Amino acid sequence: MKTELQNIAQKIGELESEADEHKAVIDTLSPLNGDRKCFRLVNGVLLERTVKDVLPALQTNHDGVKNIMNNLVHSYKTKEEEFIAFQKEHNIKVISRS
């Protein structure tokens, strides 16, 4: 159970980093002219597009990552509550290894 919690926490951290990267790119592209060309990496292939084509896709991806992250946080909290209840039910004490 503890390993599962750690795995979820790690995935949340990865998604936070990805969301921050998406936000930085969105903030950079937003003030630019829509007809300006930009490049987007998709499955290892660099594609030339315009800002007006890329910006909506980036926003959609950012929103999706945030949504998945929120679901994982909810899942983490639920599993953490189950873990604490399991510890109490079976009288398990956590001993730190120093």
UniProtKB/TrEMBL annotation:
**Which GO cellular component terms, listed alphabetically, does the Swiss-Prot or TrEMBL entry include?**
prefoldin complex
Name of one Pfam family that matches: Prefoldin_2
Would I find Chaperone among this entry's keywords?
yes
GO terms, molecular function: unfolded protein binding
Return one Gene Ontology term, BP aspect: protein folding
Transport found in the keyword field: no
What keyword terms does UniProt attach to this protein? Answer: Chaperone
Stated family: Belongs to the prefoldin subunit beta family.
Protein name (Swiss-Prot/TrEMBL): Gim4p
Originating species: Rhizophagus irregularis (strain DAOM 197198w) (Glomus intraradices)
